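User: Could you walk me through two proteins back to back? I'd like the raw sequence and the structure tokens for each, with a short line separating them so I can tell where one ends and the next begins.

Assistant: Of course. Protein one, sequence then structure:
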Amino acid sequence: MKTVILDVREPKEAMTGFARAWHLNEQQETDRISFASPELLWKVLTAKRWELLKTLCGAGPVSIREAARRVARDVKGVHGDVTALLEAGLLNRTETGAIEFPYEAIKVEFLLQAA
């Protein structure tokens, strides 16, 4: 199952992990998208965007209009959410202009600990 991991890490820590994997030519079993803070993660993954991702999971390429129909929302609002998810790396745009969620699962990781 192709999974993407969303986590909260300091940018320096995320880059160190990326550089290590690149240097060692390690093949990653899952893709990872890191956010600098939990607030940024939740800013990108709003409730409506999460619903959109759930709807697109396993759907294959669809138009923005079709995605809007499936989540029963207006095209303009879905277009804004698609733009944010494309910028975050959670959606892909196909050669034909359709959007696609290229994963079968999302795993969210972050630790809340005492200061």
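----
Protein two, same layout:
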Amino acid sequence: MNKKEAVNLLRKYAPNKHVFRIVLDHSKAVQKLAVSIAKKANADVEFVKTASLLHDIGRFRFPPGPESIKHGIAGGKILRKEGFPELARVAERHLGAGILKKEIIEKKLPLPKKDYVPRTIEEKIISYADNLVYGKTIKTSEWAVKRFRNEIGRECAQRTQKLNEEIKSLINKNKKQRK
């Protein structure tokens, strides 16, 4: 899927032009950061380009608010329906540094009871980039950890910190190999 097709898929599910623009602008900011990281990490850049653009397609069904935690699952359903299971997994697993079945049960979250944790390097890069992009603004990894500690709790903040360290380590390792 190319960029134009991905944008058209976002447009297809957007309820109106205003919301489409908000999601597209955020997704483009995530894409820009994620692609730059993917290049440094020797990840699949083409996949990251497409997946980062579509990671928040579920926001059209569940915008920020009390049920926004459902947007990853909603995005996964949309992308599976459209025939893109690999992209669906990115949408489902991109929230924070993932959500564990245990947390879903303990916090009574309105999600199917299973783990939603980024597994591939591309999924991790997109989650990391999304954590740092607030609207269209890139924040620090420390800001992201604090945000998730306040919004979700200590365990999520710890997973976010671990993801931050993993991505930074991968970038540094590949930087050293290129020298």
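Residues 127 and 165 are 13 Å apart (CA to CA).

Let me know if you want the two compared in more detail.
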